[in-house]
Design goal:
Number of strands: 0
Strand content: under 5%
Shape: globular
Largest sheet: none
Order of helices and strands: HHHHHHHHHH
Helix content: over 70%
Number of helices: 10
Structural class: mainly alpha
Distance between the termini: 57 Å
């Protein structure tokens, strides 16, 4: 990676950390173009996913979805299951923000399958939480409780709060 590209990525990361999400999205997009121009498809896809996350934070879910679409295929080609799952989860989050709940659920389930195949339990737990939120918003309380329980089971070292929530959810399910 040349120094200018490295500096651009550092600038994008700094903007993101500072809450300047539009600036971060712009810079991640520029980095993606630079990588794509040099034939580094996997790195370009990674920058597009970073750009997508920044756009979601900037409340631009349509743009976030557009940028992330197809990146999962790049990662699938290289066998990078973790980043493939992350790409699918980013797309699902954008679909959820666009209120396209059925599509979001389907994409989250695809991400879940990939994360579980990769043994990425922490990422899978996050996806289960997102599924639970959509299910709860649709009034599917039992499904949401089961998804949240599954999410908590994926946490290797649960906090006290998570252990209490796990017990409360267990009691809720069997009432």
């Amino acid at each position: 990676m040349d120094d200018r590209l490295k500096a651009l990525i550092e600038k994008a990361n700094a903007a993101y950390k500072a809450g300047k999400y539009r600036d971060a999205a712009r810079d991640f997009g520029s980095a993606a173009e630079a990588y794509a121009g040099s034939g580094s498809d996997s790195l370009a896809a990674e920058m597009k996913n970073n750009q997508s996350v920044a756009l979601l934070q900037a409340r631009q879910p349509g743009e976030a979805l557009e940028v992330a679409l197809g990146t999962e295929k790049v990662f699938a080609k290289t066998g990078d299951l973790r980043r493939q799952g992350m790409a699918l989860a980013n797309q699902a989050a954008a679909l959820d923000a666009l209120r396209r709940k059925d599509e979001a659920l389907a994409r989250y389930r695809r991400a879940l399958t990939v994360f579980e195949k990769a043994g990425e339990n922490e990422y899978a737990a996050d996806v289960w939480k997102a599924l639970a939120a959509i299910q709860a918003s649709r009034g599917k309380v039992t499904d949401a409780v089961i998804s949240m329980q599954t999410s908590l089971m994926g946490v290797e070292h649960p906090t006290l709060k998570q252990r209490i929530l796990k017990k409360l959810l267990f009691l809720r399910l069997w009432r």
